[in-house]
Amino acid sequence: MTQEQLDACTTQENECFYNSYMNVIYGKGDRYVLGFRCEDPVIDHALIRLGDQYFDPTLQAAGKFIPYTFAILTEFTVFDMMRHAKSNKDFPPDVDYIQSKKSKFKNVITS
Questions:
Q1: What angle do CA 24, 67, 21 make, to 5 degrees?
Q2: Residue 13 burial (C-beta neighbours within 10 Å; 0-12, 13-18, 19+)
Q3: What's the pLDDT score for residue 40?
């Protein structure tokens, strides 16, 4: 993501779900992407998709961004993201939400 694009994004520190949610609402990304940062330990995380590229404005804004492996759980359009947020007390969807609403999603495995 260019510095100009990043400057236009919501980038509150340590708020990846909120940042990604707001950036998709305001057109800075096409999709809200929910998944896991493949680190030790694995961390549930949200980022945005813009075109065919994925960006993490939260970590990129923190400086000294180091690319990482990300396992995508699901992607939401702005409409679907807002619909799920409404049923989640206005919070953006996260992994716990997906697991609690597993009957609304396909192929959710809980263990």
A1: 15
A2: exposed
A3: 92
d(C-alpha 57, C-alpha 67), whole Å: 12
Residues 43 and 95 sit within 8 Å (Cβ to Cβ): no
Separation CA 1–CA 4 (nearest Å): 8
pLDDT over 60 (residue 73): yes
Residue carrying structure tokens 């100009």:
4
| Among 69, 94, 101, 86, CA closest to 19 | 94
Rounded distance, CA 23 to CA 99, Å?
24
Beta-carbon contacts of 66 under 8 Å, excluding residues fewer than 6 positions away, are none
pLDDT above 80 (res 12): yes
* 17/30 Cα distance (integer angstroms): 15
- Residue 48 has phi, psi (to 5 degrees) of -125, 155
